[in-house]
Amino acid sequence: MGRTVLAAVLVAAAVALAGCGGEVSGRAVAGNDPAAGTTTGPGQAPPAAPAAVRWMDHFCGTANFLIDAASVPPPSIPDDPAKVRQTFLDQLNRLSGVLGTALIDFRRLRDEPAGGGEVLIQLIYGDVEEAKSRVDVATAHLEGSPELTAAVLADVNEELAKGMVPLQRVVTTIGLLDLPAELDAAAGSAPNCNRPGPTS
């Protein structure tokens, strides 16, 4: 279960980077405090530690934020070339904001370790940061070009393609890891980790 949740975060980010991210508002990390205390009945496994449940709930809150961002259809492309440029620029800025918010939440999770989760964040943080940097380079290039020429578009797309590489690397890393047992157990008690997926 834990690995599925983690992979969903990064697949969602990759989809957003590919151009499917839409406008997102609100904060990524949930403000609730799950698992203040649970009891164990006969034959049940011991309850997960509250700190581990909170960590997983916050992690999955970031996952849900990225999934929601990637699930919003992109806007229609206008006929006016100037408006096409602005639409593209708006999408890049939104995507940078999505990845930036995720990085803020990953830093918070890294600095509030529980159940070994900080090791996971250390493994993926740099790659997510690199992806955002590539998006920002593409954005700056487009902002500095008054017209969306074929050459400009090619340069922007090249930077976005480079940004996909670290996200794909993160997905590969997650696929090779096992979530620490404490966090894997905590995911079942974390509301954000058990939210129904988006419907099409």
Which key features would you list for this structure?
200 residues; mainly alpha; 66% helix; 0% strand; elongated
Could you explain the architecture of this structure?
It is a single chain. With 200 residues, the chain is mostly helical. The chain has helices at 2-20, 50-71, 81-111, 117-143, 150-176, 181-187. Helix 1 runs antiparallel to helix 5 (150-176). The longest helix has 31 residues, at 81-111.
Provide a short characterization of the protein structure.
This protein has helices at residues 2-20, 50-71, 81-111, 117-143, 150-176, 181-187. By secondary structure, the chain is mainly α.
Assign a percent range to the helix content. 55-70%
Can you tell me the overall shape? elongated
Low-confidence stretches: 16-32, 35-43
Counted beta strands? 0
Proportion in β-strands: under 5%
Counting DSSP H or I runs of 4 or more residues, the number of helices is: 6
Give the rounded overall mean pLDDT: 75
The helix-strand sequence is HHHHHH
Q: Could you describe the largest sheet, including whether it forms a barrel?
A: none
Head-to-tail CA distance between termini: 22 Å
Computed over alpha carbons, the radius of gyration is: 19 Å
**Class by helix and strand content?**
mainly alpha
